[in-house]
Amino acid sequence: MDKIKLGASDLYVSRMGLGTWSIGGGPAWGGDKDRQECIDTIQGILPLGINLIDTAPGYNFGESERIVGEAMQGMKREDIILITKCGIVWDKEGSLFNKVGDIQLYKNLSKESIKEEIEQSLERLQLDYIDVYMTHWQSVEPYFTPISETMEALNELKAAGKIKAIGAANISPEQIKEYLKYGELDIVQGKYSVLDRAIEEDLFPVCKEYGITLQAYSPLEQGLLSGTFPRDYKPVGAQCNKKWFQPDKMQKAMDMMDAWKPLCEKYKCTIPTLALAWILSQADFITILNGANTVPQLEENAKALQVKLSKEDADLMRELAIAADK
Known about the structure:
Helix 1 packs across helix 2 and helix 3 (111-125) crosses helix 4 (147-159). This protein starts with a strand and ends with a helix. Helices cover 37% and strands 18% of the residues. Helix 5 (173-180) links the parallel strand 10 (163-169) and strand 11. The mean pLDDT is 96. It contains eleven helices and 13 strands. It has an eight-stranded parallel barrel, surrounded by five helices.
């Protein structure tokens, strides 16, 4: 599998990684998954040439990290580029974020909180270092922390060998430039799919200008673009309040996928493979997170790396997505 350089670091990542939000289970994903199946899925990445795993403490209150840590005991550590995150907490104060079940999450990117979080993550992951440490959501009032303070903590962790590279998710171009005042920012994560292309206007230009890797999360719109949901599908967990899971939008998205079928035949691929291949065709500094829960899903998604869409077909998919949003 092709690998790309991660920003200015000396790390190289596959153009597709495994995102483990869904694997973490819990209320946000309609309940827990089969643990052994999740472990098998994580361990199944290396035979496919995938070396990138993304997790976070906020994925079911550390459960995703624990599952990833358990799976990595059966893998060569040096073969894996692992991303985990900081800034979303539930055991201390911060600015209000989401509520999951009965538990309130908070945003906190203070230096003190980051130093506590990484020790907790290392314990859950059963590791002594993390390849990429990423701020999960950016700091806001009333518990605002200047980026200078956040980066001071991250740079100290880097100097101590606890992390190798720094990333930021859910971030604006102005915030990216502020991070860069205080050190290296190697990867930026943003939501991106054929149905949600907003980051093309803001993150694409700044990432290209500064040589930052762009990581696309939710490329299949939380499973909608898997093409497997029936017309009367009822969203669960975190899907419920999302734009493309509202009844009228969901039907239009399904009409769009029906219109993709000739392309699937042309490229000998499935709907999700086509959706992932579309993202890869948009820029060479992008890596995708796929949220497979099983080995067959993982194997199917990985086929996107072999699909080389023509510009005309990629443009057609864009036009169909624009029409679905009207």
